[in-house]
Every structure is written in C-alpha cells, then in structure tokens.
Amino acid sequence: MPTVMITGGTGMVGQNLTTALISRGYQVIIMSRNPGKYKNHEHVRYAEWDINTQKIDEGSVSEADCIVHLAGAGVMDKRWTPRYKKEILSSRVKSSEFLVKALSEHPNHVKTFISASAIGWYGRDDRMHPMPFVEPDKPDPNFLGETCRLWEKSVEPFTEMGKRLVKLRFGIVLSRKGGALSEFKKSFRFGIAAILGSGRQVISWIHIEDLCRMIIYAIENSHVGGSYNAVAPVPVSNKELTLTLARSLKNNFFIPVHVPQFFLKLFLGERSIEVLKSATVSDEKIKSEGFIFLYPGIESALKQLTKNSGS
Question: How far apart are the C-alpha atoms of 271 and 26, rounded to whole Å?
Fold first, then answer.
C-alpha cells in the first residue's frame, strides 16, 4: 500500500485519519516540529518539519506517495485579535508554500496532494442565499472567506507540478473526542441544553469517520480532483443538533436555554459571527463521484458518537 505523509497529524482529524489508514494497510508518516516526543510504530513514524527554520526530513519527501495537508492554527481556539488572525492565515498559507518548495527541491514521487479547507469559504448568511452553497460559489470577502481563498490558492502550484490536487472544504466535524461536540456538551453537565442565539441557524456538519473515509476515498480514486464540500447530506439547525445531542446523553433530563446573541458577541468577540452564521452547504458533488456516507443524518451520527458516553 502507498505511504501517506500527514501534516497536522497529531490533531483530532489527523489522529483519526492515521487510525483509518493503518486499518487499510497504509504506511503513515506524521510531520512534526518535535518528532522525538512521539513513539514510532510498525506502520507509523514521525518525521521533522519546521516552517520557521525551513527544515524537512528529505527521506519522508522521497517516500511519500500522497500528502494530506491538515496543518493550521485552530480557528476557534483563541480570540480573533489581529495577531491571532495573522497566525490563522499564515499557518495555512506558509505551510503550503513550504511543501511546494520541498517538493520542487527534493526528488519525490508524490502523485496526490489533499488539502484541508473549510466551509468558511461561504461566509454569507444563507438566509440571504436561499440555495445551498456549491463549490463554484465565490468566497465571501469576510475574514474566513478570504482565509479560505488564500489557503486554497496556496496549494494550486501542486497542479502545475503534475500532482492530482483535491481540496476538501470541511464542515463542522463531529467527533467523540475534541472539536465542536465537546463544546456543545459542556452545558449538559448542569442539565442545560444551550441553544445559541435563535437556534435557527443551519449547521453543515460531518461525522469524523465519514470525513476520514472521504479523504481515503480521494486518495484511492484518481477521478477525484478539485474542490469538494466535506459535509453530510442533511444539515441541521443549531437547535435541532443541540436537542438531539441532549436527548442522546440525558434522555429528557435537561432544560433548553437560549443563549442571547449579545452574550455570545461579548464572550466570543468576532468569532461569534461563525457561531451565529447559517450555512446550508451541498454535498452533491462528492456524492456524484461515488462517495457514500455512513452517517447522512444527525440522529444516527450522534447515536454512534454518544454510545456508552456520559455527559
């Protein structure tokens, strides 16, 4: 089986993807600034890369058949100060540019380059845009829309290098550990189901297992190329997701509470735009390529993710 190099491999998506790849017999190389912190395994090894010092393990570049580029500072991890906004953008663009440089300078047989992107590309509120967002739609001029535009532009040189390029615009990733689901679950400890704002805003989400399967599908199917929305077939409102999750964890022992917009804006600052935004995003393009979802609806997804789980 091919060897897959992963940047951002120690994050939530990267860890799940590594497990999925190993189960299919792949060899995995995870790039890290501190590879000595991690223990190599039979099918996984850690190798050095450092964007600031422009160092990369040449052997990893020569071994890789495919690169999955997930590296980037967490969008919701910190308040959007001018400094952190710069980090969000540069961590994506500069890392892509570094990989372009590495592949142009070192012998390699990389055939496929898969880059993460995000549905932040579609910044406009879909209540003003009645049709589901599709891949050809232009990026919104807001911060995340412009970040996604520059992010995707930064990987375009791989096409010019003769590599097959796939850009997956991730929706809200639902996982048992970490990510958005952990944030939703916090209020349940107090018996409260916190509905954000009106709760009517639409969330385009994807189960972590389907996301990893989609990445592997892109690796294994040469007809897949270009940009794709990585979202489940059935988006849900914030209220529906919150209440479905609450019922999965607490049965009916919870109190629904709406968190006012002004409080979210005060607490989250500019990040509240993303929490309150409504974005109905289409999955039709990736389905037309033959991809089949295991978790198309929120009930089956949350049932699997909360199985044997406490709040």
Answer: 38
